[in-house]
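hi! just following up on the protien thing from before. the input was this:
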Amino acid sequence: MTGICAERVVIVTGAGGGIGREHALEFARQGARVIVNDLGTNARGTGQNEDVAQRVVDEIKALGGHAVADHTDVTDFAACEALIQRTIETFGGLDVVVNNAGFLRDRMFVTCSEAEWDSIIAVHLKGHFCLAHHAAAYWRAQAKAGEPRDARIINTSSGAGLLGSVAQAAYSAAKGGVLSLGLVQAAELARYGVTVNTICPAARTRMTETAFPEIMAKPESGFDAMDPANVSPLVVWLGSQESRHISGRVFEVEGGMVALTGGYHRAAIRTKSSRWEADEMKHIVEGLLTEAPDPLPVYGAGERKGS
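and the predicted 3d structure came back as:
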């Protein structure tokens, strides 16, 4: 198959359904050879079903593409190293890692258990670290050997990572961590020919259907803005060689919208040439709040003012 990713080798995690499945299919349509990674767990991250990844592989092969199913747990550091090696042995190299795997265990912060917190941080944040770490080690070795791969890491954050989301403290914290991780990866890995970008998608998946049923409902007719397939063209393009000049960026994508999102910046500032005193802070902080624009509200919290 030909396309903008012809002959590129891609690993997509969590590719058995939802957004990940659409990424895998679109990469295949654009000529990539795809490792379809998925444990086949349920929406809460329990259970396992190897048929989930295999079904997507079968779809890709029916399109005339090349794909292999994989069932590595992305939170297992050693297993992710083995996955990188299997990919290289199977397809002769590796060009793109798309970190997408995840699940939800929504809970208000005050009732979130340690186990629930740990499981969400593990799959969303550690899961982004494990596979990309071993991929980066491979790409660094290739670059030092004079054979750079023009490689890509594409991370998946969320609006919850940008703004926070009520009843999703662990998820929001993990996805916020993914945003920062991508910035550091982009800065450190550029010397090896690796770009790193992050997407914040909004689409209908088994996670969002439960959290936001009305917003995610499929319309009876017309454009389905929440179709997860809407997200994948950007991801596939970012995985192509055409995007080599773009790194360290965050993109929001939803329906027919693609937005470039900036990071934290100073909204207002006061300075002087000596240390502030505590009794000066009331005047200073109130002035800053008056001058700065109101922050956007946390998802699920409604309207929120600067104070």
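The mean pLDDT is 94.
Residues 114-144 form the longest helix (31 residues).
cheers
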